[in-house]
Structure prediction request, 252 residues.
Amino acid sequence: MLEIKNLHVKLEEEDKVILKGVNLTVEAGKVHAIMGPNGSGKSTLAYVLSGRDGYVVTDGSASLEGEELLEMEPEERAAAGLFLAFQYPVEIPGVGNMTFLRTAVNAQRKARGEEEMSSGDFLKAIRAKAKDLKIDAEMLKRPVNVGFSGGEKKRNEILQMAMLEPRMCVLDETDSGLDVDAMKLVADGVNALRDAGRGFLVITHYQRLLDHIKPDVVHIMADGRIIKTGGPELALEVEHNGYADILAEVQA
Ligand code: ADP
Ligand code: MG
Prediction:
């Protein structure tokens, strides 16, 4: 589904290389987790996949179901089925949350040659999904993320994901800043979307989210590369021993 090959990325503004040859394939139906110390390039990988400015791909490729992602505009990537839940969700003053979501859902439908969702169907769907995530009706009317607490912003990201039903979901530290109950809501939201036709890349610094979203594969990223890949036990190893042991083992 998502295939990243030998991806090298540097910053546009300065001569700093951040990703140094990332190789990663996420199959449909699977949940892959990326863990790693702060500053290892996890968010950069998510940003580059989404098409954010400020990064230059110097080598390698990334494709979604065979379509080359890196040449597409951000909205084309979204229409192709890529979704990113950001570590720091952006506030959009003046744009109502509900309006924003409806526009996004219908833009994607249009790009896929499908009919727009009627306002009745949209309302029904968003109310049901918001209820599952304990997002109240007031929050749906407020401007996107403006004045939302950290936890509300993260839940709102999951609401967007649930409404857009993307093929490939990338979540960047969606657990950071969440208390246990909010994390459980987020994890339930993700688990509800698990499907044979959908892939997930869950980026997290800590293991605890992975207690609730059971990954199939765990990758450890350090200094712009994936240095180790394993099963869920790798996440537990990190929880018990930190990253030092794995880093030492790889450098040896
Ligand atoms: P992670 O998400 O794993 O903590 P990041 O991808 O955020 O790591 O960052 C990787 C490295 O790149 C860090 O050293 C960070 O400071 C640097 N970096 C990323 N984006 C920028 C930027 N726009 N300007 C300067 N440094 C950046
Ligand atoms: Mg990060």
Observations:
- The radius of gyration is 18 Å.
